Amino acid sequence: GENVEQHPSTLSVQEGDSAVIKCTYSDSASNYFPWYKQELGKGPQLIIDIRSNVGEKKDQRIAVTLNKTAKHFSLHITETQPEDSAVYFCAATPGSWGKLQFGAGTQVVVTP
Amino acid sequence: NAGVTQTPKFRVLKTGQSMTLLCAQDMNHEYMYWYRQDPGMGLRLIHYSVGEGTTAKGEVPDGYNVSRLKKQNFLLGLESAAPSQTSVYFCASSYKRLERQFFGPGTRLTVL
Question: What is the least distance, in Å, from the CA of A61 to any CA of chain B?
Fold first, then answer.
């Protein structure tokens, strides 16, 4: 089955710096790659997603890149702010149906 | 528009007791999902439904049953709770597969 590995598990950055989280997947049939942000005590919320026919997608300070050949995708957050502190999860969609397989999560802490 | 709601928010059970978690969505979504979240393991799919009256097994279905009698509701049942089922449970819904999933606020379950 699909295995999604996410690194790092924790990331501490200074406010204003950039943060990068990387994920790798094993099933080449995966074609949808969402990123979710989870704040303490809340459910995950989608922040950006990318499909396999696109190499990069950007939404304001957030961007995602996808390398299908290498089977890895990354989340980039620029000009980090304290409200970016949360746990971030990547996910892939093994097989043809589209069930999400999540990474283990990255705890991001933005210090003022 | 409440989105996805879950009841209860917290519950403590003794080993062997049963309970039902209720998920409701008011977005007219066809697809609904139940996940469990454990430290360091991301979210794992328990069961899902692709429409009213349908259910299917996810990654970790053992010990759980589900029902989708109405389109807006998805119930998760534990017939005989075990300490290994101590977790945070999230319900989610989506309009289509391979589309954004909307998550509820979660239910924290402790089995003693």
Answer: 20
Q: What is the pLDDT of residues A48-63, one digit of tens each?
A: 999 988 899 999 999 9
Q: CA of B2: how far to CAs of B33, B46, B110, in Å?
A: 17, 24, 26
pLDDT tens digits, residue range B68-100?
Answer: 999 999 999 999 999 999 999 999 999 998 899
**A42: closest chain B residue by CA:** B105
Q: Which residue on chain A is closest to B42 by alpha carbon? A: A104
User: Which one of A4, A98, A104 has the shortest CB-CB distance to B40?
Assistant: A104
Cβ count near B66 (within 10 Å): 23
CB B56 within 8 A of CB B50: yes
Distance CA B10, CA A107 (A): 24
